[in-house]
Write a structure and sequence with these properties.
It is built from 1 helix and 5 strands. It is of the alpha+beta class. Strands 4-3-2-1-5 form a 5-stranded antiparallel sheet. A hairpin with a 2-residue loop joins β2 (21-29) and β3 (32-37).
């Protein structure tokens, strides 16, 4: 992915340079993309060339993580 291909806020992406973490796109910070863990937590900066779209399985895991966090009250 490139800077010009930034997705909509909330879109899921996989950061291959940070262990394959799945995060929600939150915005841009210079040349970096800001991602937030699906289940809540601090944002991290990612380089666009290390990001890819999630597979259907990764999307399902992210949806499950979000629901689990919501049920614990960690995410509203």
């Amino acid at each position: 992915m490139t800077q010009s291909e930034a997705p909509a806020v909330g879109a899921l992406v996989v950061d291959t340079k940070h262990g394959g973490r799945t995060g929600e796109f939150r915005g841009l910070a210079g040349r970096y993309w800001l991602l937030r863990p699906v289940g809540g937590g601090p944002e991290w900066k990612a380089e666009p060339d290390g990001l890819r779209e999630p597979t259907p399985t990764e999307r399902l895991r992210a949806k499950n993580a979000r629901q689990n966090a919501w049920s614990r009250g960690a995410v509203l």
